[in-house]
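Final report, Chapter 2: Outcomes

The project's central promise was a pipeline that accepts a single protein chain and returns its three-dimensional structure in a standardized token representation, suitable for archiving and comparison. That pipeline is now operational. To close this chapter, we reproduce one record exactly as it appears in the project archive, with the input sequence first and the structure output second.
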Amino acid sequence: MDVTAVLQFATITRGLSLFLQAVLNAVIPDHDADAFRPPRTREPLYLDSTVEWLFGGLSRWDAEHFLFIAEGGYLYEHNFAFFPLFPVIIRGLAETLLWPLSSWLSVRGRLLLAVALGNSALFLLSAIALQALSRVVLQDRRLALLSSLLYCITPANVFMTAGYSESLFTALTFGGLFLLEKGFTLRACLALSIATAARSNGLVNIGFLLYLPSLHAISQIRVYRATTIGHRKVFCYIWVIIRVLLTSFFGTAIIALPFCAFQYYGYRTFCTPSISLDRVPGALLSLAEMKGYRVPDENGPPPLWCMRPLPLIYSHIQDVYWDVGFLRYFQLKQIPNFILALPMATLGIMAAYAYFQANRELCLRLGLWETSENQGLDKPTPGMFNSKVFVYVVHSTALLVFGTLCMHVQVLTRFMASSSPVPFWISAHLLLLNEPLLHRRKTSNPSIQLQTHSRKGFKYPPQNPITALLPHFTACSPITQSILGYFLSYWVLGLVLHCNFFPWT
């Protein structure tokens, strides 16, 4: 039943997002932004203008890179900031499921349609994956449901809908973590490895692989210590240690493999090029000359980054094209962007602080072992402060610190919302803790109550508390108004601004 509720709400929000972006894109004139806008090298077909009118808002900003790569492959050096899995998927959809439309839609038109269909389906999968992961980790059905419903109105909504890889990455990450929690280590490694082929921050998920099997190994050692004796105990200890070391080594290699392979492809493309400029379409070459984009040329000198001890094209692009680096964004002119990122940063800080206050001993011991004074206190208890949440809070905090200090800070909203379940867990926890309407407690207006549904003669809370709360928004607690106001305002503002080439998170 919970999965059905999440699926229904996710479907509604996807349909509404697609409808609103089309309307807003048609009503509001596009901003003349200094963004990547490659020229069209193919003639449009009959339905291209219709698809562009319906889904053109999905192709703004970085989405143009993904569409360009999907249509013609990697050409410009800075295209390599965008990993290949998402372009491969939408091109696959364009050439298979949407191939019957090839007489009416060009490749570009089919790719736009693939973005709308593909990201909608991937978002549904990510919502289901989050609900499953939340049930396993939080061990609280109501909190897991509310977290998943909040995810359906994520502040990063526009990036989950547009031609970005966020929905794909989130589905693979949450799905992989669910498999890891259930003990399916190999399948989890494969899912997290595929996630790394979608976004570079998939490498951070290696931390889960190192931590969760280690935690399981320590639990096994405790069992062997209590149930085995003599030499057999020693052999059991050695086997557990060897197994966790092998799991960590090979799992890390599997997850990191797509990143390493992509960096090698970038090195071969620019450091040992095999194509000449006369094979590049004239319009694309003119754009490169006008904007200063580097293209591979077998007759030209290799770029300087090829001479580095570790020639990573991704690091070079982040440094040169996006000016990403430690504290580089700490400038007075970037204060508005820090304000944009503040709500998500606040959720991350609140989650870390509240968890540490509730589990000081557990945090100091990294959740790995018990002391004699605290033995038996770390058994999982339902809710946000469950001991199993520890590693997720650490992961979320690491993303928060890195995103604040080393990235364009406005990206923090989608960076955390697509990589960690913690922002949704802490938001749901605060709603359940502070909203009287969700507990049928007395409110300032006793005549306002959430509508309940009956089953077998018993009354139950509404299946979707988000839609039940919205009609009574003004009667909700300040915490509820703040959280829902943040989620919904960013949900709408992202569609208004991003889809018309205005700067957004």
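Archive annotation: The chain has 20 helices and two strands.
This record, like all others produced under the grant, will remain available to the consortium after the project formally closes.
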